[in-house]
Amino acid sequence: MTWWWWLLIVGALLLAIALRDLVQRRHALLRNFPLIGHLRYLIERIGPELRQYVVADNGEEKPFSRDERRWVYATAKNENSYFGFGTDDDLTEANRVVFLHSPFPILEPVPHSAPIPCSKVLGQWRNRPGAFRPQSAVNLSGMSFGSLSGPAVQALNRGAAIDGCLHNTGEGGVADHHLRGGELVFQFGTGYFGCRDDDGKFCAESLLKTVSAAPVRAIEIKLSQGAKPGMGGFLPAAKVTSEIAEARGVPRRVDVASPAGHSAFSDVASLVAFVEEVAEITGLPVGIKSAVGRADFWTRLARHMAETGRGPDFINIDGGEGGTGAGPLVFSDHVALPFWEAFATAHHAFAEASLTDAVVFAGAGRLGLPARAAMAMAMGVDLVNVGREAMLAIGCLQAQKCHTGHCPTGVATQSRWLQRGLDPTDKGVRLANYVSGLRRELLRLSFACGMKHPALLGPDAVAIRCADGGYRSAHEHYGINPAVTHSEQRVKSIEEALSSA
């Protein structure tokens, strides 16, 4: 076929597209500018990639800047994560965090494995039979199978096994992919996946079956999450594969809905009673995960726990900037407090009730970076949970296509073709490198400030720049009392943990 035949075919195709553009009524731009109007949609489609790799500077992108992603990638690959020629950040911007280093730092070298045990014993307050001290203060946030691919879940669990950190299952139940050697925190939400009956209600027998079949060390009851607090969830029938159906305890190829609230409890008293019921059934530490909205809930919860001596063993505060779940823009942007204000609100309520030593505080919401993790622990967080940063460590590119099913690296998709690019064994090693690398940076920072554990830093070791050019401590800025974070009981517990690490 001669070249002019190809030219004729291409010309005919372009003419057909132009005619279609002229007669269609859906897009005004194409109707007025046939053919060339498609350039606008092409640029819109590839715009995020252009901005990410060409336009944006090193500290500009959200939720994670290029510098932040580079640090995670280098740490996960066990490469040099240093940055040369000084900072390119604006050190005078408002709300910038500065750690006040000591003139007399800790001189001993930071161990490569960087052991940072949890500053408290999980379940000690209520004398749970399964009480234990997590050996890593950095652990994996709840990301369920279904939202993440099977290979991604395998990689996370393999990495948790290598490093010794805890792997939160997310609310999608326990799948075979979770059973790669890592210890689990079993999370369930309003759908009670993995612990439900045929009507979708909580089922104690189903819970026991799930817990006994997997290395579950603790249970987390999810009230809400930072990405879409106050909302339920919906998984269309097309996505309910046989694997997902088995893990969640639901029929295959049937729509699965999670309501906005729990059917097992409806107020503070019934919530506490339900926590105790779950703990009695399993013997394990039981906690709650929640984003923070109304402050009076935390006040009522703390008072009820103080009065009854009953309640959750740990509280996981999820900041409004959390994002392992997709949700409506208005919920992502405008519902739930950011982590610092959220944690301060909940922590203050428990401090008022003299319960901060009884409860283990966990935190999530972009805390997988050294400065944010260290500040969280300085403010009283005992356990740091990392979600999206762990996704970055196993290959996520921040393409922000999690909700489309077209994740290009196979992390957040059920596409078999896209999943094949993710090797769970290789990525598991990278995950372990990242978690231990984050702990190593936390210890370096702690040693520079003269402390052997980041939980000993305290809110007065953190300075926050104000708009007027001055600085305020985290104590002054958020109302976190150093006498509470450095209580005699907490300091003694940390010293015991360090002596046995």
From TrEMBL:
<comment type="similarity">
    <text>Belongs to the glutamate synthase family.</text>
</comment>
<feature type="domain" description="Glutamate synthase">
    <location>
        <begin position="135"/>
        <end position="451"/>
    </location>
</feature>
<protein>
    <recommendedName>
        <fullName>Glutamate synthase domain-containing protein</fullName>
    </recommendedName>
</protein>
<dbReference type="GO" id="GO:0015930">
    <property type="term" value="F:glutamate synthase activity"/>
</dbReference>
<dbReference type="InterPro" id="IPR024188">
    <property type="entry name" value="GltB"/>
</dbReference>
<dbReference type="GO" id="GO:0006537">
    <property type="term" value="P:glutamate biosynthetic process"/>
</dbReference>
<dbReference type="InterPro" id="IPR013785">
    <property type="entry name" value="Aldolase_TIM"/>
</dbReference>
<dbReference type="Pfam" id="PF01645">
    <property type="entry name" value="Glu_synthase"/>
</dbReference>
<dbReference type="InterPro" id="IPR002932">
    <property type="entry name" value="Glu_synthdom"/>
</dbReference>
